[in-house]
Amino acid sequence: MKRILPYLLVTVLAAAIILLYISGKAARKRNFDDRVTLKRQDKIPYATYVAFQQLPYQFPGARIQVTRKEPGYWDSVSVYDDRQAFICITDRFGADESEMKKLIDFARYGNDVFISARYISSKADEFLRCGSNAPEYYRQYPGDEEDGKVRLTLNTPPFSDTVHYQYPGKTFSSYFTQVDERSTQVLGFDESGRPDFIRLQTGKGNFYVHLEPLAFSNYFLLHEKNIGYYEKVFSLISPDVKSIIWDEYYLNKKMSYDQSQQQKGWMTVLMNMKNAEGEKPFRAAFWLLILLLIVYVLMEMRRRQRYIPVVRKPRNDSLDFVKTIGRLYYDRSDHKNLCRKMSAYFLEFVRSNYKLPTGILNDDFIRLLHFKSGVEEKEIAEIVSFIRQLDEGDTIHERQLAFFHNRLESFYKKA
Predict the structure, then answer these.
(1) Percent over 70 (pLDDT), the chain
(2) Where are the domains of the chain?
(3) Which CATH topology does 32-262 take?
């Protein structure tokens, strides 16, 4: 049971997370998705899927490519070429001085730059010689209380007639507070008559700035006949344009603060809940619990085994026995008996290692042992001669014991 407990806890935790995810997803399906992403892949109301998909119909001869790179570093696009268009629809156009210079240089060579954003940076205002107002939050159902709809208007000229385009959705209500009338042409207004769409000519090209990016959202374009707004706005771009750059660099550019409009679930609320000291105790406790659970699972899942004792190298007890017996015989001065034990060990050594019979110790035995062991015949003959004399002599002196021992040790080292 103890071994199954970690796996059971992990299974329960995973099931709880999956259940929360499914329940949250089901809850989102029942609600109107009012997130503002402005992404070309999204088909939610406030994305730009329709606007992007309409480009091939608006510019049938143009090659359309998407880029996430900084202006001037686009793939397969030369900033010195003409008949190109740069289109950027984003929440925040946070261009710095270097990026504005590159975009203006791009337009000067005979290209069009179209920017639609709720907010444009102060550097962009400086380069375009204008001032803009960008609220931090959108408004729902602004304008006249009777219709409760966002209303946008295109100016005449350059457009042939004045048509109001409206929809019952969101708006940021961004507008230009001032423009340079000498170099700027106002192309459109918001529901309060304030300019929100301008054009500046630079070199051979044009620089368009539009302050209501939600006018290119799926919701706005698919409402009634608002697709006409899209067609008229993009008709300002040269119809023979050969390349269109759809920008996502500013859509993904990291800003100093987060302006996302994601829905908050109960888990998000708990994670961001603060106490009187401004700390978030639930978040700390939650992650601590997850960490302890992971540590516990890892500790319980490790391989368990019994302690393996150290196996010591076996001792050669027979050698110790021989040494003990040798010292015993030596202390008793029984040299002859000790020599017999040494000769018996020698003959057993010969039989075991060289497979030679030791019953007859003659010259043939000496030659064969010399051939197999490599020891000189003279030394082997001295050993054999001493073994023969053991039965003939009465006593063995200490000198003779030492002589016999030295010959045997020499044999063992050379064999």
Answers:
(1) 78
(2) 1-30+276-302, 32-262, 317-414
(3) Rossmann fold (3.40.50)
